[in-house]
Amino acid sequence: xxxxxxxxxxxxxxASMGIGRGIAKALAAEGVRLAVVARRRNLLxxxxxxxxxxxxxxxxxxxxxxxxxxxxxxxxxGLGSVEILINNAGGSRKFTLESTEAQWEEAxxxxxxxxxxxxxxxxxxxxxxxxxxxxxxxxxxEPEGINGAFAAKAAMxxxxxxxxxxxxxxxITVNSIPPGRIMSEQILRNYPPExxxxxxxxxxxxxxxxxxxDIANLACFLASPRARYITGTVxxxxxxxxxxxx
Length: 246
Known about the structure:
Elements: E1 9-13, H1 18-29, E2 33-38, H2 41-51, E3 56-59, H3 67-79, E4 84-87, H4 101-129, E5 132-137, H5 148-167, E6 172-177, H6 185-190, H7 193-202, H8 212-223
C-alpha cells in the first residue's frame, strides 16, 4: 500500500534506540523528512549515517525544564513544519509503597507532562495547515503493581482521547500505541534469555517478543493520509499478551 508520506515532516522523540529508532527508520523509508530527539547525540548521528539521509538532530534531556519548547523550536527551524509527532520518549521503573513524591513527580513528568507540553507547542502550526498526526507510544493497562509510568500512560490515553475530539475538525488525528514486549536495549538489560523464552511460550499467544518494526509498521500507517478516519484510539501491539478484550 502506498502510504502517501513522501515529503511529509516528522519529529520522533526517544529516537536513539529501540522503538523510536525503528519508527524513525520506517518513516525515513517512506520518504519522510525527520527531526530526531534523544540524550545521546552519537546514537542519533549513527542513525543518520545508517539512513544516509540528513536528519535534524536534537540532543535534549526530556526531563529538563523548558525541553518541549526547545525541541519544538529546533524541529520547526530545521524542517519548516512538523506534520507528524511521535511521542515516544519515556521510561518505566517499578515503585513500592514507600516510593517518594519526587519519584512520582519524575514518572509523571517524563511519561505524560513533557509529551503533552511538546504536543501543544506544535498544535498551532498543524491547525494552520489543517493536517497533523500525533502518535503516542504509551504502555499497558494491566499493571502488576505500583508503577508511576503506568499511571502516567493511563493519563496519556485519557488526554489523547480528549484532544482527538478537539482537533479532529482541523484534520489532525491523535492515537496511542501501547507496546507489548518489544526487543530493545532495556529488554535485554532487564530480562534474561531464560525469562524471555518462558514468557514467550507461556504468556504471548504468537510465541515471541516483538521487534521495533512491529510498532513502526502501525505508526507509519497511522501517520499516513490513509488513516484519516482513525483517531482517539488505543491500539496495542503486543502479540496478544494483554488479556482484556478491547
